[in-house]
């Protein structure tokens, strides 16, 4: 009787579950089920996968696309490995049933863009793909759960920094071996758990000091650094070694691999061997400035102010009334120091001040602009006797007083 029961139970179990997919190994470590199908020559995700699977490994196959049905109903799946396939496409909502998924390994594939909607993800490994862009909302669903993000060895020139800055639980951020040129200041401020930040081999000329770096000890080495510290790797970047990198020079060093790319006298020198006092910035020096400029009322005017310095100075303009000029419907302030007024008015006459500033100081210059009145418009009253031009000049004249703003 007992035997019969056991046979019936076994039969029932076999009927409920799916058979193990061909050439795969299925481990039923009750209550969880792991299916291992690595190096089995798969071209697709097998259809006959038990939907209760908890761990699924499909690495080193020839899967090219992830389809909607591949992981449908796999609500128990915690760990999915698709590394080392040839995946170039993940169809929308392909992962939408994986509500419990914690780790997704997609490294060494051919992905060029990524969008995964997963709410509990902790580990997202996207290393060694061909990613060239990441949409700003790609990580929105797991901003607060993600602990480990690996974007290394891709083609990323831009990273959605706003999103990165909101990964409040992140511990490891690997962005090495990409084409990143710029890290915005303050982006890591809220990443209190960050312990490892790898920016090796990008195109960074500088790395701004971050409030996070000031709060916790930052090490440039992993060996022997205390647990509650951040290890920052930045070798293999074309570092511009001026005073802005002094904070980095003051870190505990690892080895002598990092070199400076510029300025010329520090080029190719080992970062850690350059004395702190050689990390210099040069204050701005005005090299070119518009002379006294005359413009006819209503015509455009262009005021120029060029400054050299290290780092590259920013130029701001102050109006004759002492106001900082910004881009508006009438004025454009260009990063190269040019101020363009596209329609001048008599009220624009006066002394404009340009201020060039950088980390080492500032320098100011004055450009006088004289706007001259248009002779044939200057006197509408005398012209109003002429019936042909009167309406036109009245229009101009009313515009002169009311269209200046
Ligand atoms: C998923 O579940 C739905 C509803 O139970 C079912 O209709 C569908 O066939 C299942 N899909 C797969 C791939 O198992
Ligand atoms: C002046 O420039 C602004 C912004 O570039 C533009 O919107 C506006 O039409 C220009 N005005 C004239 C008269 O060209
Ligand atoms: C003003 O606009 C120009 C042209 O669109 C742009 O290049 C420049 O950076 C802007 N300046 C500021 C201060 O935003
Ligand atoms: C600055 O840039 C603007 C817009 O690109 C250009 O029109 C202007 O000629 C430039 N000025 C100088 C001094 O190079
Ligand atoms: C600009 O400054 C110069 C020198 O201080 C002065 O002679 C000139 O009157 C000023 N121009 C205007 C329009 O205030
Ligand atoms: C402009 O018109 C007024 C009278 O309305 C006259 O007194 C003045 O001389 C005129 N000025 C010129 C420059 O024509």
Automatic annotation (TrEMBL):
Bilayer topology: Single-pass type I membrane protein
SUPFAM superfamilies: Immunoglobulin, L domain-like
Parts of the chain that traverse the membrane: none
Occurrences of domain Ig-like (ranges): 283-372
Keywords: Disulfide bond, Glycoprotein, Immunoglobulin domain, Leucine-rich repeat, Membrane, Repeat, Signal, Synapse, Transmembrane, Transmembrane helix
Subcellular location: Membrane; Synapse
Signal peptide: 1-17
InterPro entries xref list: Cys-rich_flank_reg_C, Ig-like_dom, Ig-like_dom_sf, Ig-like_fold, Ig_sub, Ig_sub2, Leu-rich_rpt, Leu-rich_rpt_typical-subtyp
GO CC field: membrane; synapse
PANTHER family associated with the record: LEUCINE-RICH REPEAT AND FIBRONECTIN TYPE III DOMAIN-CONTAINING PROTEIN 1-LIKE PROTEIN, SYNAPTIC ADHESION-LIKE MOLECULE SALM
Protein family membership: Belongs to the LRFN family.
Protein name: Leucine-rich repeat and fibronectin type III domain-containing protein 1-like protein
High-level lineage: Eukaryota, Metazoa, Chordata, Craniata, Vertebrata
